Amino acid sequence: MVVAWIVVAQLRTHVADRYRVETSSMEPTLHGDPDDGDVVLVAKLPMGRPDDWPGRYDVVVVRNRLVEDGPWLVKRLMVQGPADVTVREGDLWQRVADRPVFRRVEKDPVAQAHLLLTSFAAHGEATGYLAEDPSVWRSVGTDLVVRGVPEAELFAARTAAAHAARAEARSTLHPPRHLSTNRAQDSSFLDALGEPRGLGHAWPRDLGIEFLCTLESEATALHAVVEYLGTYHSVRLGTDGRGRLYRMGESWSEAFEHPPLPTGTPVRVLFLHLDGAFQVVVDEQQVHRRPAELAAQTDRVLRLPEPFRAPERNLLHLGFASTEPGREVARVHWLRAVQDPYLPDEDGRIWSLETGDLFLLGDNVHDSADSREIVGEPFALDDVVGRPWAIVGPAPRARWFGSSTAVR
């Protein structure tokens, strides 16, 4: 018995140990709860760490520098020193030794797609997030079946004049003939259990729409729209493989090529504003990126008169152009609104990292104790205990760590 205890103790010290996630700081990657949180198997690094680990966006388990003798912390590595770090315009920025200016820490919309939070997910039996409009779509099983319209109508519905007319008439501000969300995209998101979580009173600037759809032969193009502060930013993807960005119904970019949209075969599309640019991804391939700095939704903006206040303006729309208007030309198998969290302003604070220092954040940035709260020595490589290897409990959530948790 003594030998067995010694073996177990050695394994926990040098090979692997269990750790229960008690806080919500890593939602939705890890579910946190003092009694029912994810139990993580932590692989330790007794013989030193690989030269390329940890890297940016890796999840690490570290000793607690925030609370003396406190429990381990699970966080995501954002910047490794030597570098200076600050928060601007809702994003993390860094300045390295050979560059005199700060540059935004940018995410790749394909490689880091798993870092985007899901504001909501909708499919056939969960359509409460979408404006009811039987002339545009209906639910069939787990699919949303969408009707096609003349492409000219899709463009005309998103012009500044059309928007102003709807606002003056106090009618719905959804562009007609679109499948549209009926609530603003705020900072709330779905946690690891698929339940809404978050403050709900901040308005993300980095947001977008992702969906999986199948087109019928009559379809000629799909239009995905991000409406932000009353301005429609949209992408048109044609079945011929030609795409273009539009702003308020007017061309806003050069034409670009993308994989042709086949009929009868599901295609996955992501259109979003992320890290200072509108980005288009088709079947996990980034096909276009257009720099565009959007205004922050500050308290000043929130005081704008109706109907232009921010809570009513973060909306998403989807439409399908067809050669035979009125026919059902697309099946949307799932759709989700995504966002990249807007980091709270830190009043221009700069964190200086030396070689080996780490800047760590929780995925739930609005409810995370992390590097932003440290007033003394920052986290360092020597604080790294190991990496999450697997979630071993509770049983319904058990999986190898890193497997997809995206809501579908």
What does this structure look like?
- It is built from four helices and 29 strands.
- With 408 residues, the protein is mostly beta strands.
- It folds into two domains: 2-82 and 354-400, Umud Fragment, subunit A (Ribbon); 113-340, Jelly Rolls (Sandwich).
- A hairpin with a 5-residue loop joins strand 12 (189-190) and strand 13 (196-197).
- 39% of the residues are buried.
Task: Summarize it.
By secondary structure, this protein is mostly beta strands.
Strand and helix map with partners:
Elements: H1 2-14, E1 16-20, E2 39-44, E3 59-62, E4 73-80, E5 83-88, E6 91-95, E7 103-104, E8 117-122, E9 137-140, E10 143-147, H2 151-156, H3 160-168, E11 179-180, E12 189-190, E13 196-197, E14 206-215, E15 219-228, E16 231-238, E17 242-247, E18 250-251, E19 256-257, E20 267-273, E21 277-282, E22 285-291, H4 299-302, E23 315-322, E24 328-340, E25 350-353, E26 357-361, E27 379-380, E28 384-393, E29 399-400
What is the CATH topology descriptor of the largest domain? Jelly Rolls
Q: Classify the beta-strand content into a percent band.
A: 35-45%
Helical segment count: 4
Distance between the termini: 48 Å
- Per CATH, the architecture of the largest domain is Sandwich
Overall pLDDT metric: 85
Shape designation: globular
Provide the structure class.
Answer: mainly beta
Low-confidence stretches: 1-16, 299-311, 403-408
| The CATH class of the largest domain | Mainly Beta
Helicity level: under 10%
Rg over alpha carbons:
23 Å
**Total domains:** 2
| Strand runs, count | 29
